[in-house]
Specification:
Elements lengths: L2 H13 L6 H17 L1 H12 L3 H27 L2 E3 L8 E9 L2 E5 L7 H12 L3 E5 L5 H14 L5 E3 L4 H8 L5 E5 L2 H13 L4 E4 L5 E4 L5 H13 L11 E4 L1 H19 L15 H11 L4 E3 L3 E2 L4 E2 L2 E4 L6 H4 L6 E6 L3 H8 L7 E5 L3 H10 L4 E4 L20 E2 L5 H6 L1 E9 L16 H10 L1
Parallel strand pairs: 3-4, 3-6, 4-5, 6-7, 8-9, 8-15, 9-14, 13-14, 15-16
Antiparallel strand pairs: 1-2, 2-18, 7-17, 10-13, 11-12
The protein binds nicotinamide-adenine-dinucleotide (NAD).
């Protein structure tokens, strides 16, 4: 089946109302759950083949997250999809009012390579739970995981319900040229703009999960050893290829030396004296990204790391000392195991530096001062973040996950995934036993009455 034929088949399937049936949705998710549990070792192996991701990280950041999203959706499908009664307006008296959650219809989900399994399957769960059909386009840069995802989806779903289309830019562009009812994209800002343009063509609603330059502030009151440990973890997990990884450090000069020492110790503790030999440190996904990243190291002073091996796509965990703001490493999102360290003296310095960039996907602040943390959190606009840790806000399904401004539009996880893939339809049901005449013409002499009524509306 080519792409237009596939979409046509999915349109017909959606029109048959099958996907709206709650027990159909639930059994689909249960079948997916059984298959994912069965194939967990295959998934872990595919992720290792694609970029030497360790089994531990594969389970922690991919398979377990997907399984807990699935469990939550299966458990709560009934309550999430139930029409929600809201208070009626007095202007409509007598009446009742409800919000109905209805599926958009035919959805397209486009996934990136960095968490190639989790970022592909998690949105599929939301879309299926909400009663949509799905075409999923996984990343071509992680071919083993993509092929496995295709085989999993084919084992579980009728292709009229959920299907995978593999491929790169031409296939994605062909998909984007079709008319969808919802687009869900995770990836880079430039491609996000291409997706937004395609969505505009048909006024298709869209979620864009993008990237950005996420700052990580360490002030003079922070618990330095703990900050170093948590930053090393959040920065170098997945080889630094995490959309919410701390992108650059903003550190108070009075704690810089102690921080650098602690950081060195933590890297050695995590990955040994030579991280290239560590089974826990993933590789850069391909040579194109390797070359992009190693270019950032040119002319910089490395406080640790700085070594690389192109044949193995290895770049050591690296800390760069005080790059200038117009250097290669400070220009755009790094998306690799390189962390630039910039010192700040005052909150004005923070404003000047953070203000250089678009609104980031994440922000982290390490401090012992609650008031400082509160000021930072409220002063800056960012997708989401953590005080005294990195990236862990991702793990709470009760928090919406998504960006703002250039880092994205919309959010998902947990119940919000279901809501993202549902149109919220507001419906008023009017009583027929009374019909207050105020709103009907002729209006002469009714304005005062209207104004009084509006006060209660
Ligand atoms: P990408 O934008 O290059 O690719 C994402 C998807 O778009 C892939 O499936 C790819 O095939 C497709 N694509 C690429 N170029 C295209 C084009 N010209 N036209 C149409 N489709 C195209 O992103 P990536 O390199 O896979 O992922 C890295 C980026 O994703 C980083 O910027 C990162 O911050 C971001 N990201 C964001 C999140 C989030 O949740 N907000 C999560 C992971 C990654």
């Amino acid at each position: 089946m080519n792409i237009p034929e596939l979409l046509l088949a999915q349109k017909a399937f959606f029109a048959s109302q099958t996907t709206k049936d709650l027990s159909f949705r639930k059994s689909s998710l249960q079948r997916l759950q059984a298959e994912l549990v069965k194939r967990e070792n295959d998934i872990v192996a595919a992720l290792h083949q694609d970029f030497k991701k360790s089994a531990y990280e594969a389970v922690m950041t991919e398979t377990s997250i997907v399984l807990s999203e699935l469990k939550l959706a299966i458990k709560n499908l009934g309550s999430w999809s139930k029409p929600k009664r809201v208070r009626p307006s007095i202007l409509n008296f007598p009446s009742s009012a409800k919000i109905y959650k209805e599926p958009y219809g035919n959805t397209l989900i486009i996934a990136p390579w960095n968490y190639p399994y989790q970022l592909a399957i998690a949105p599929v769960i939301g879309a299926v739970a909400a009663g949509n059909t799905v075409v999923l386009k996984p990343s071509e840069l992680t071919p083993n995981t993509s092929a496995l995802i295709k085989s999993i989806i084919e084992n579980v779903f009728d292709s009229r319900h959920v299907a995978v289309v593999e491929g790169g830019i031409p296939e994605t562009q062909e998909l984007l040229a079709q008319r969808w009812d919802y687009l869900f994209f995770t990836g880079s800002v430039p491609v996000g703009k291409i997706v937004a343009k395609a969505a505009a063509e048909h006024l298709t609603p869209v979620t864009l999960e993008l990237g950005g330059k996420s700052p990580c502030i360490v002030d003079d009151s922070a618990s330095i050893d703990l900050a170093a440990k948590r930053i090393v973890w959040g920065k170098f997990i997945n080889g630094g290829q995490t959309c919410i990884a701390p992108d650059y450090l903003l550190i108070h000069p009075s704690v810089k030396d102690a921080f650098v020492e602690a950081f060195k110790k933590e890297v050695a503790k995590a990955y040994g004296e030579n991280p290239e030999n560590s089974e826990d440190f993933p590789r850069i996904v391909n040579t194109k990204n390797f070359d992009r990243l190693t270019k950032m190291l040119e002319n910089e002073t490395c406080l640790i790391g700085g070594t690389s091996n192109r044949e193995d796509c290895y770049i050591a965990p690296t800390l760069i000392d005080e790059p200038s703001l117009d250097s290669e490493v400070m220009k755009g999102e790094i998306f690799g195991p390189i962390l630039p360290l910039v010192t700040f003296h005052s909150e004005q310095d923070l404003e000047r530096i953070i203000g250089t960039y678009d609104k980031p996907l994440a922000l982290y602040v390490f401090t012992g001062k609650k008031a400082f943390a509160k000021r930072i959190i409220q002063r800056y606009s960012f997708g989401g973040g953590t005080i005294n840790d990195t990236t862990v806000h991702f793990a709470n399904h009760r928090l919406p996950f998504g960006g703002v401004g250039e880092s994205g539009i919309g959010g998902y996880h947990g119940k919000q995934s279901f809501d993202t893939f549902s149109h919220h339809k507001g419906v008023v049901s009017r009583g027929t036993w009374l019909d207050i005449p105020t709103r009907y013409a002729p209006y002469k002499g009714k304005l005062k009455q209207l104004k009084t009524l509006m006060k209660f509306g």
